[in-house]
Design goal:
With 560 residues, this protein is an alpha/beta fold. It has helices at 24-35, 53-56, 77-82, 92-105, 195-207, 231-239, 241-248, 270-283, 286-290, 300-317, 321-327, 345-348, 395-399, 410-413, 447-467, 477-492, 522-534; strands at 17-20, 41-44, 112-113, 118-124, 129-134, 139-142, 144-147, 169-172, 187-191, 210-215, 221-223, 340-342, 354-358, 364-368, 371-374, 378-380, 383-386, 401-403, 432-434, 470-475, 540-544. The radius of gyration is 24 Å and the shape is globular. It binds flavin-adenine dinucleotide and NADP nicotinamide-adenine-dinucleotide phosphate.
Length: 560
């Protein structure tokens, strides 16, 4: 296992570790493996720049829905003290600038190869190495492989008949042109009303001559209440940064500063309950709202009180009663799909140039040369925007021909849904690590925190292996199945499985309906990970190296 440091005389394409993906997870993995462990690392990235999500999703209005004082790296105090965010929530260009700054500041770029899509990864047990092949015909090998390929990195355009015949321009929010798009004077369709649709629709509406939104499922949407950064608050926050970052690990969503609720929604008189929801609505943000009461995600009757509050807000904002009713979500409990934060979304439907079409009762049948046809009508458009989401959580991993020690692909292993240990490793795939894979709480948290936590745990595991002359690590099948069952059992104790969400794979026809994220909370999850490490990795098989490794030739540098 991890030799001390690349000696420089290894064959071309041969490394101590390969990381796939240069989003926040891949960058942090590179930083730690190279600068803390002293490994020779290569990062392979399909795009021509760093940033992952923030590199690809350049659609108008794209911004994070976690406050930027939280949604940022914690590993370097000087970085977090020096960086200043202009607004409460960073927008896509700002976050991309920030990630580029991090790449330069920590000299990460020199170990990243861009424009390199990994198409296959195969484990050779005899040689003890992963061999990765790329779309460009190159090969790379290393004993350790880290898949930092993202949960929301495979955009999905529904398989509508006739798309190739469309004579206008079409776009997907998750692969937006780098130069941007000007919709001025155009007749535009937006298909999809998840977070990406909700962020882009108000801005497209201001440009377009006519905007038609095709909504299949109405979503619960809360106001972001974005605005300029409160500098006094920023100063206070920065003074407490170290403690706040630590405290975040003791919370379910990985964000400190929200006092946990203590009462059931049903134990509070209606007037008081509504006053609490009003206050949270005015504050903005989803965690604050979900933290109104203890049981919003576990008790349907409690949840109904919050759901109805939001529906009443929609009815109050949207002037046309029929449109307002169509915008009212009624097929899932609030919070069981990712809550969407908006800026002026519902108000957009009061504009004369915006129309909402019910794509549930009149599904889109086909794209035509001049627009699209639903079961009820035909529409003419100059441009179509697909805000139709991603093959989430498993998509990027399944796209790679990823074969473990026995030659089975991950896609075959996961035919009935993903099986993982902690969302980090899979039985039969030695030394292959995932960052925030299915079975991790990653997507239910402030994701940069989860990426850092996963990488730190992996670094601890690699150190343990180095200290004990261990060549490979992989989970036992028994431990993996126990964890996978536990992930499902916890989900069943909540209302989450009631929604047809991407957490359930429900947005992809034919995908197994399995609730994939761990919803027991970042706090419990991290404790569990730490206990496993402290106990010497029970549930994992560690295979000793045939020949003991020489002690480190070069002292590992960098932070811990
Ligand atoms: P990604 O950023 O997805 O990076 C993965 C990288 O791997 C990509 O660059 C991709 O090109 C590369 N890759 C994938 N497959 C291959 C391959 N086969 N070969 C080579 N390269 C490959 N999370 C939050 O916590 N808060 C938010 O507010 C928030 N907002 C979001 C907004 C949008 C529009 C989206 C889509 C997601 C958002 N998320 C948010 C989730 C976001 O994905 C994570 O916060 C975080 O950026 C994930 O980083 P990552 O490095 O794990 O993955
Ligand atoms: P999404 O939440 O999966 O939404 C996709 C939308 O497209 C849904 O409204 C879906 O309807 C619709 N759709 C899909 N196929 C359709 C079809 N054939 N006909 C009509 N409508 C169709 O995707 P997303 O909005 O890109 O967001 C994905 C995730 O990325 C979010 O949940 C969030 O985690 C992250 N994100 C975050 C932010 C942020 O605010 N920071 C912004 C963007 C994305 P159904 O609901 O009926 O399937």
């Amino acid at each position: 296992m991890p030799p001390s440091k690349g000696t420089g005389d290894s064959p071309a394409g041969s490394y101590d570790a390969i990381v796939v993906g240069a989003g926040v997870a891949g960058l942090y993995a590179l930083r730690r493996l190279r600068d803390t462990l002293g490994l020779k690392v290569k990062v392979l990235e399909a795009g021509d720049g760093v940033g992952g999500t923030w590199y690809w999703n350049r659609y108008p209005g794209c911004r994070c829905d976690v406050e930027s004082l939280e949604y940022s790296f914690s590993f370097d105090d000087a970085l977090q003290q020096e960086w200043s965010w202009p607004e409460r929530y960073g927008n896509q260009p700002e976050i991309l600038d920030y990630v580029n700054h991090v790449a330069d500041r920590f000299d990460l770029r020199r170990d990243i190869q861009f424009n390199t899509r990994v198409t296959a990864a195969r484990y050779d047990r005899a040689g003890g190495r992963w061999r990765l092949d790329t779309a460009g015909g190159e090969s790379f090998s290393a004993p350790i492989c880290i898949m930092a390929t993202g949960n929301l990195s495979v955009p999905r355009v529904p398989e509508f008949k006739g798309l190739e015949s469309f004579q206008g321009r079409w776009y997907h929010t998750g692969m937006w042109p780098q130069g941007g798009v000007d919709f001025t004077g155009l007749r535009v369709a937006v298909i999809g009303t998840g977070s990406s649709g909700v962020q882009s629709i108000p801005i497209i509406a201001r440009q377009a001559k006519q905007l038609t939104v095709f909504q299949r499922t109405a979503n619960f949407i809360l106001p972001a209440q974005n605005g300029p950064m409160d500098r006094a608050r920023e100063t206070r926050h920065k003074a407490e940064y170290t403690e706040r970052r630590r405290a975040a690990y003791d919370t379910p969503f990985g964000i400190a500063g929200y006092p946990p609720p203590t009462r059931s929604a049903l134990d509070v008189p209606a007037a008081e309950r509504n006053a609490i929801y009003e206050r949270k609505w005015a504050e903005g943000g989803s965690i604050s709202f979900l933290y109104s009461f203890t049981d919003l995600l576990t008790n349907q009757a409690a949840n109904d009180t919050a759901s109805e509050f939001v529906r009443d807000k929609i009815r109050a904002i949207v002037k046309d009663p029929a449109t307002a009713e169509l915008l009212c979500p009624n097929d899932h409990p609030i919070g069981t799909k990712r809550l969407v934060l908006d800026t002026g979304y519902f108000e957009t439907y009061n504009r004369a140039n915006v129309t909402l079409v019910n794509a549930r009762t009149a599904p889109i049948q086909e794209i035509t040369p001049t627009g699209l046809r639903t079961t009820e009508a035909e529409y003419a458009f100059d441009a179509i925007v697909f805000a139709t989401g991603f093959d989430a959580m498993t998509g990027a991993l399944k796209e790679i021909d990823l074969r473990g020690a026995d030659g089975l692909t991950l896609a075959e292993e996961w035919r009935d849904g993903p099986h993982t240990m902690l969302g980090i490793m899979c039985a039969g795939f030695p030394n292959l690590f995932m960052i925030t894979g299915p079975g991790s709480p990653g997507v239910k948290s402030q994701m940069i925190l989860s990426c850092e936590q996963h990488v730190d745990w992996i670094v601890g595991c690699l150190r343990h292996m180095r200290a004990h002359d261990i060549a490979t690590v992989e989970p036992t099948r028994a431990a993996q199945e126990a964890w996978t069952r536990h992930v499902g059992d916890i989900a069943q104790m909540t209302l989450y499985p009631k929604a047809n969400s991407w957490y359930m794979g429900a947005n992809i026809p034919g995908k197994p309906r399995v609730f994939m994220p761990y919803v027991g909370g970042v706090d419990r999850y991290k404790r569990n990970c730490d206990e496993i490490a402290a106990a010497g990795y029970p549930g994992f098989v560690m295979t000793p190296r045939a020949e003991p490794m020489p002690r480190p030739l070069v002292a590992a540098a960098g932070n811990d």
